[in-house]
Write a structure and sequence with these properties.
Largest sheet: none
Strand content: under 5%
Distance between the termini: 27 Å
Number of helices: 4
Helix content: over 70%
Number of strands: 0
Shape: elongated
Keywords: Membrane, Transmembrane, Transmembrane helix
Transmembrane segments: 7-25, 45-63, 70-90, 102-125
Number of domains: 1
Order of helices and strands: HHHH
Structural class: mainly alpha
Length: 134
């Protein structure tokens, strides 16, 4: 299986597992009622994170194809843009609750997908060169 399909499958797995665990955690803690007080949803946050990470992974794979030596610089630029986009996404919901419900949920989602982005960049930067011995 090529690396594009592996990274896509891994993103799908991270999204589904993260959403499932996050949903179960909120249900067990009895915090689902807070979602009704805002226009955000947990699924919307995961969709935003998935699309943002898919975009970052695409740019990293393009950089790996076109200019292997600059994957780390592209990674830093993509993460900066992703952080700004994330702030713009959540900006209207900041300080909405006293207990920082929305901020903490979004921060959890952001870090889940940040770990995925770091893993993709790590695997692309640390590719082993396979040498055929004679």
């Amino acid at each position: 299986m090529n690396k594009y399909a592996r990274f896509g499958g891994l993103l799908f797995l991270v999204t589904v597992l993260g959403f499932g665990i996050h949903t179960l955690l909120l249900q067990n803690l009895g915090l689902n009622a807070y979602w009704k007080q805002t226009h955000y949803t947990l699924m919307g946050m995961y969709a935003f994170g998935c699309i943002a990470s898919l975009t970052v992974a695409t740019f990293l794979l393009l950089a790996d194809f076109a200019m292997k030596n600059y994957v780390s610089i592209v990674f830093l630029g993509c993460i900066l843009i992703k952080a700004v986009a994330s702030y713009l996404f959540i900006q209207s919901g900041l300080n909405l609750f006293e207990n920082d419900f929305l901020e903490l949920n979004f921060l959890g989602v952001f870090f889940i997908f940040l770990m995925y982005d770091i893993l993709v960049a790590y695997r692309l930067v640390n590719q082993e060169v396979k040498v055929v011995e004679k």
